[in-house]
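Title: Request for sanity check on GST-like protein prediction

Description:
We are preparing a figure and want to confirm that the structure record we downloaded matches what your pipeline produces today. Could someone re-run it with the sequence below and paste the raw C-alpha cells into this thread? We only need the C-alpha cell string, no images.
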Amino acid sequence: MTDLSAFPIAKRWPAQHPDRLQLYSFPTPNGVKVSIALEETGLPYEAHKVDITNDETWTDDFLALNPNGKIPAIIDPDGPGGQPFGLFESGAILVYLADKTGKLVPTDPALRYETIQWVFFQMGHIGPMFGQLGFFYKFAGKDIEDKRPLERYANETKRLLGVLETRLDGREWIMGDTYSIADISMMGWVRGLVQFYEAGDLVGYGDLKNVPAWLDRCLTRPAVERGLQIPPRG
C-alpha cells in the first residue's frame, strides 16, 4: 500500500484509497477543471472536499502542499519515477494529467503548445478577470460607491469573450475538432459568469453565438456533468 504519510494534508484528509490519485478541491471554476479532467481521462482518484467557505485552505496541513492556500491540489501516488508527487495550480495539474494519461492534449508538438497556450490564456486572463467581475458585481465589491472597478472588469470580460468568440468561429472546440484541456480550463469560468455571477446581460453574453454554443456542447458531456459536482458541496 502506498504511504502518503510524508504529506501533512493526508493526515487532515485521510485517504481511503491511497493507491489512487488524491484530489483536494471544492466545486469552483478552478476546482472543477481537475475533477472534469479526471472524469474525462478515467484515471482512478479519490476526492476530498476542502471547504473554502470555512477557510480550510489556510490550515497548516493544506499549506504544506500549496503554500498559496488555493484549491485544487493533488497528490499522485504514482508520480514521476513512481514516487508520490504533490502538485498545485489548476493549469499545471491539467497539463500533468494530460501528459500522464496521453489524453486531452494533441501529440503533435506544435498543437500541444498551442493547446497549452490557451490554458495559459485562461489562467492569466479569463480566471482573474471574470473573478474580479464577480466580486464587484455580485459580492462585497458591489457595495463600493465608485463603479469604475466594475466597469473596468466588465469591459475586459467583454473583450475576453470576444477573443473566445473569434477563436470558436468555425470550430467545435478551442483546438478545432479536438476537445482538450483548453476547453476544460475555460468552461467552468464561462458557466460561472452567466449562471453563478448572473452577469450575462452585463457583458453582452446574449449577443454571442459561438461561445454559448460551445458551452452547451461542453456541459452535455457526461464527464463534465459528473465533474461539476465533485467533490459535493454538501
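Thanks, this matches our download. The mean pLDDT is 97.
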